[in-house]
Amino acid sequence: ESCRLMPAVKADAYGHGAALIAKELCALGVNAFCVASAWEGAALRESGIKGEILVLGYTSPHQVHLLTTYDLIQTAVDCAHAHALNEASYYPIKIHIKLDTGMHRLGERSDHIQELASIFACEKLQILGTFSHLCVADSQKMEDILFTKLQISAFFKTIEQLKEQGLNPGKLHLQSSYGVLNYPDLPLNYARFGIAMYGCYSSPEPELSRKLPLRPVLSLH
Ligand SMILES: *Cc1c(COP(=O)(O)O)cnc(C)c1O
Hints:
The structure is a single chain. This protein is α/β, with parallel strands linked by helices. 38% of the residues lie in helices and 16% in strands. The protein has 9 helices and 9 strands. Strands 2, 3, 4, 5, 6, 7 and 8 form a 7-stranded parallel β-sheet that branches. The chain has a two-stranded parallel ribbon with strand order 1-9. The longest helix is centred in the C-terminal third of the chain and has 23 residues, at 142-164. The radius of gyration is 17 Å and the shape is globular. The protein starts with a strand and ends in a 10-residue tail after the last helix. The structure holds pyridoxal-5'-phosphate. The site of pyridoxal-5'-phosphate has 11 residues, from loops.
């Protein structure tokens, strides 16, 4: 009940039209979104979208002005990125820290506690959240389920260690569509719902689609 949706409206809302989808979601009471780039976030603001907008991808320190002008929350994709943003900005920047719990795409390693702690010491960074990405949450293979459980426990362990140092990791989020569908009971603050919100499974899912029949929101006439 304490978990809010933060739908993924990146890539032009998966081709549906980012402004159109975000406006519809606002009307339904959603007030947090995630996008891939600062440009996508800026375009959403230009089309009148209020609420929180989290940029999931890397933003160059040369583009920090986009973050402050458009009131975007930026992902610190690792410790070096956080420090570079801190150096580059005159104004405070809102940040969610990305932890790498095993996907090895973006994120500071979740066991690098001192590096993570150094991000909290950056004067211009307001740390509002901490998150990670479950990379095989869609799979029903035993090894993938075990891997996902390891990612989840690594995430919460890091959160505990930060709290023990008196640091506040802010709002927490881990799940994309399949995280929500397959691991619904986690104590988190946001769910980054994407493909399933548009009414699609990203792989054939006989079992899930019996339990939860999704209908595509897009139709072609
Ligand atoms: C795209 C994306 C999502 C949404 O993923 P779906 O599988 O479409 O639900 C969530 N989190 C991150 C970091 C993403 O890049």
